[in-house]
Amino acid sequence: MSTAGPSAALIARLRAAGCVFAEDEARLLQSSAADPASLETMVQRRIAGEPLEYVLGWAEFCGLRIAVDAAVFVPRQRTEFLVRQAAELLRAAGDGPGATGGPAGRPPVVLDMCCGSGAIGVALAAIVGDIDLYAADVDPAAVRCARRNVAAAGGRVFQGDLFEPLPAALRGRVEILAANAPYVPTEAIGMMPPEARLHERLVALDGGWDGLDVVRRVAAEAQDWLAPGGHLLVEANERQASPAAEWFARNGLTPRIASSEEFGTTLVIGTFGGPVRGTVSGTAQV
Ligand SMILES: C[S@@+](CC[C@H](N)C(=O)[O-])C[C@H]1O[C@@H](n2cnc3c(N)ncnc32)[C@H](O)[C@@H]1O
Predict the structure, then answer these.
(1) What percent of the chain has pLDDT over 90?
(2) Mutate to test the pocket of ligand 1, among 84, 110, 114, 149 (most ligand atoms within 8 A of CB)
């Protein structure tokens, strides 16, 4: 539509509906709408409480536009920290300038487990360059969405429960296992903002009684899939980090916790056997 700024009336409607960044949203909606009728439809969906990303059909993540379909988990800005840490680990594992951690000069294998839209793998490919990207999710809608996003990075997306759908040939070859699994404790789901609670699937949010059910399952199998010196990275809240790190240690991974004030998030990073090749600044060993 027109490149003129959004009207004051549109901004006021969004603000009245509780949109905190009404001006920005109005601009995005206007620039995405093909004509006034479709703008009105989009505005009504937004005012009815649909997440902006579903209305637009994309989310901004690590400076990229990631396609996001209805009900698929919207990638959060905080997850950029996980991407940056993974990129740093891959660089640290490289053999030479610009090289990344694949064996014998081959691109490193990256597995985006619980991939949702595939945002983590796509962003990592954009930052690091040449990676051998695999992704998996149990939700068919997420898999459809991720396939569109990872195609440009040459990645492959599998549907099924955690590692079950993956090719056996990947065992022992994964350099980065990024698993932003659901980690909200069941009883905290009701306190989530309505945009998440009402529009994203429970399977994308609910991590069981303490939020760590899926994380524990991923960590328990990780050493079968990681290459020596490879890393598992998961997001957690502050209270979950220590128990998750202890679980990592019980399952053959050397854990550490990395926190970021900038992104307001905490990661647990586990390194499997072999030499600990990637060390990350600003982290504490547990
Ligand atoms: C918190 S979302 C994260 C999505 C994406 N990684 C991101 O950061 O935007 C968690 C994802 O895990 C998937 N998931 C939950 N349980 C799973 C399982 N048992 N196997 C595979 N995927 C699962 C959900 O469908 C959802 O897409």
Answers:
(1) 85
(2) 114
